[in-house]
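Chapter summary example.
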Amino acid sequence: MKYYIEFFTLSLFFGASLSLPAATITIETTCQPAQQAAFTTNNGCSVPMVPPTPGHVGGGAVTATGSASFTLAPTAADWSTLQVYAMTLAYPLDASTRDQPALFYTTQASSQVTFSTVLTTTGPVRPGYVRIEAYDSGSHAAGVDGNSGSLTFGSMVTGNNGTAYHTFSITLGESFNLQYVATAFAYGTFTDGPGYAATDYHAQFRFFEADDTTPVAVSESPEPSTFVFLGFDLLGFGWWGKRSALSS
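The structure predicted for these 248 residues follows.
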């Protein structure tokens, strides 16, 4: 009974590492309310409206948020999907009488969301294609606001371009990076009013052989640390088996 407990403990200690995800999502948001210092978080930020005071009508709310999700195709015939979203909103501190410099009323918000993973396709190294269907509904309200997006697919880099359908040459059978960076920033000013900006990117992609017809399966490559822990796994199980043999 004792050895079964030891085996189970080793399985938990060494085996848990085998499920390490390859994808990483980084979200950095910054909010700067009127008359206050900027602060940065990795899970969104929001500051509510300033209540009215004598001589002022309030305002000054700021919000910044972001998210990302990725679904790997379960079969070669299916599409893998990626969605990345960054949004900012900034209201200036309004005033019934302008008794302070314009900077006094300004608010700012920014959001940057980065999704990154390493993918690999099955089979030997060979030429092939990747087909990407994507659309970006990013927008911004005024000239001082802005949004952007950048897709890195192996050695290929593309920017925001609305709805797009692309077929690119790619080398199958080897690992490559998939990354998308979405940014948005907004300013709320006394002269321009509230600011708003967002980048909302949706994409789906599939891989094909050189005939541009036969689909190719894709998977996420494990992080290097996964292989290190797998080695620990095997060593741990070997040690347990040797100990059990000597005790029997």
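To summarize the output: The chain has two domains: 1-20+224-248, 25-221.
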